[in-house]
Write a structure and sequence with these properties.
Blueprint lengths: L12 E4 L6 H17 L6 E6 L5 H14 L3 E5 L5 H10 L4 E5 L8 E8 L7 H10 L12 H6 L3 E4 L2 H11 L3 H4 L4 E5 L8 H6 L5 E5 L21 H9 L4 E5 L6 E4 L5 E2 L1 H15 L6 E4 L5 H9 L3 E4 L3 H11 L3 E3 L5 E3 L8 H15 L3 H12 L4 E8 L4 H11 L3 E2 L2 E7 L4 E5 L4 E6 L5 E8 L5 H11 L4
Helix pairs in contact: 1-2, 1-4, 10-11, 10-13
Length: 475
Amino acid sequence: MMSHKIKFGTDGWRGKIAEDYTFDNVRRCAQGFARYMLTQGNQGQWLVVGYDKRFGSEDFAAAAAEVLAGNGFKVHLTDAATPTPVIAFAIVEKQARGGINITASHNPPADNGFKVRNETGGAIDPDGLIQIEAAIPDSVDSVKRMPFTEAEQQGRIVKFDAAENYIAHIEKLIDLGPIRQAGLTVLVDCMWGNGAGYFPRLLAGGKTRVIEIHNQRNPAFPDMKRPEPIPPNIDVGLKATVDNHADVLLILDGDADRVGVGDENGAFVNQLRVYGLLAYYLLEVRGLRGAIVKTLSTTTMLNKLGRLYDVPVYETGVGFKYVAPRMTETDALIGGEESGGYAFRGNVPERDGILAGLYLLDFMVRTGKKPTELLEILFEKVGGVHYYDRVDRPFDGNRKDREQLILDARPETIGGLKVIELVTVDGFQFKLEDGGWMLIRFSGTEPIIRVYCETTHPDRVQAILQDGLKVAGLK
């Protein structure tokens, strides 16, 4: 029986549970990954499989592990729902040749997903993903499997706790003692996800107090549309920050590879500003040097910091399948994207919301500043306040037709600002006369068009977005 074609987006494959995200299709994906690993000369090697807290994730992970075992691999399977960055580190720590992560990250509750990683713990590059897609069999009849119990008995599937070694690794990257003793009140919104328990465990034993919310397993994700660390999903956390007189709000998405931030007043700090803060912290406060890797959908503040500190800045397409290989190639200091995912040198080339949150806390402790004060310092450094926003809209019809519509629009101005260049590296980025930009992109995982913008003119943000929707034929 033929099955539908599985396509990998910006970060693997995602689908609706029981509709297209089924055990048979997960097994097909695992077979494609196994075939790819075999072509890379990894016969009989160890691979890592992990999963999140979504509905059925542990069972989908077990199904994937059975397929890998059936293809002659040995599998380290996490013994509990585990953050994506912890799974990535486990790949490196155990010298595995790659891994599978069952997670849909920030998608709606009805979805689940299938991510693949290479031996660095980072995303497999686009060429590799194309090879994996091509290796996925059309029918589950072509999938090789070894029953789970048999594979365990033969030592081909071994369960393990990934947390302990990851935490020991983090403690080598950052001195947690001053943060523990700083007396901060840190509110952490775990978004019902995998990051629950990590900040309390890392920061226990001192004067700093960590308060967690949404830290149980609940695949329905109450209080939010989806576990994505942006408004309105974080409104409960922002209110709790004020109610608990917290110094900062750290928000982990469902698989804890992304971080969102709320300031001491319960106001959201958008992802582009957070990226600017993290880069400034590493360059100025810690005195480190190295390349910055950014997707084209994130802030130009990074380009300005690159010039100020004489470090190269590399722009990539959207997604860590572009960022991770570029970070490895350039030994970058930091890499990140607009969605709130940031990776760091010395760690694996994978987004790590836990480490990013700890670096922000260290920034606060080393400077004695609150988040609003840190932003003031950043804006003074880069020449003024930068404003960002994004809108998502579903679309119907053929994507290629809509792409042609965007190309044919040729607007002379957007939001009242002159268009000076159109970049089509990944989507359609219109560079504007003030140094800002508007970007139109198609989601890699959903039938959605995203319109983003950054500008130094606060009164033009909404006008830029509305013009972007018009260019995309959505208004």
